[in-house]
Specification:
4-stranded antiparallel beta sheet, 7 helices, about 30% strand, 2 domains, Jelly Rolls, Arc Repressor Mutant, subunit A, 10 strands
């Protein structure tokens, strides 16, 4: 923790802003954040979510540029705020840390590329099923009703992840709900039957 200072972030606070200079890197110690960016038409698009152990803001520091997206706390979040120069110096002194950061960036690129493949040539309901399964695998947890995907998202935010509009997401959600595959309430989605949703998504069935 000698690299920086622990900072609490209140729910809904955007602590990184698109277009601002990149002077700090944040290590998420607790909680979950959303990464969003403004498209050319002015719409706010959800790009990813990050959780405990993830870095945010490192790209602008590594590239000595400006922020490419907003980062907003979902619920109470604690972060370690690290000055950019201290972060770069640490990577120079600790090659293992540099390899870890490079590996994390590679994993993110691989995830983004896989999403493009997952959604190519499929209808909205299949694309939605696939992103719900992906979120549940990365962030989800078990409940009495099934597996919560672990991330509170609006329909518009889900649409941003798969490149479809909110009305289309609403229709696809209704399809999955009518089939008894998911439950939705107050921005949360619970997958009632993982293997059946995987089959609907034309993926290899998942184990419970």
């Amino acid at each position: 923790m000698e690299l920086g200072a622990i900072c609490p972030i209140a729910d809904g606070t955007a602590f990184l802003r698109q277009g601002e200079p990149g002077t700090l890197v944040y290590l998420i110690l607790q909680g979950l954040v959303k990464i969003t960016a403004r498209a050319e038409n002015g719409e706010q698009v959800l790009l990813a979510v990050r959780v405990r152990g993830d870095l945010v803001g490192e790209m602008a520091v590594l590239g000595r540029g400006t922020r490419s997206a907003d980062v907003t706390a979902c619920g109470a979040v604690n972060v370690l705020a690290i000055h950019g120069n201290a972060f770069l110096g640490y990577l120079q002194r600790k090659p293992v840390a540099g390899f870890a950061v490079s590996g994390a960036l590679s994993d993110r690129l691989q995830w983004a590329n896989q999403r493009r493949l997952d959604f190519a040539g499929f209808g909205a309901d299949v694309c939605l099923a696939r992103i719900l399964l992906s979120l549940a695998a990365r962030h989800g947890y078990g409940t009495a009703q099934g597996r919560d995907i672990g991330v509170p998202l609006t329909r518009a935010e889900l649409g941003g992840l798969i490149g479809i509009k909110e009305p289309t997401v609403r229709k696809a959600m209704r399809t999955l709900s009518d089939l008894g595959l998911i439950l939705r309430a107050q921005r949360r989605v619970v997958i009632k039957d993982l293997p059946e949703l995987a089959r609907f998504a034309e993926l290899i069935p998942l184990n419970r």
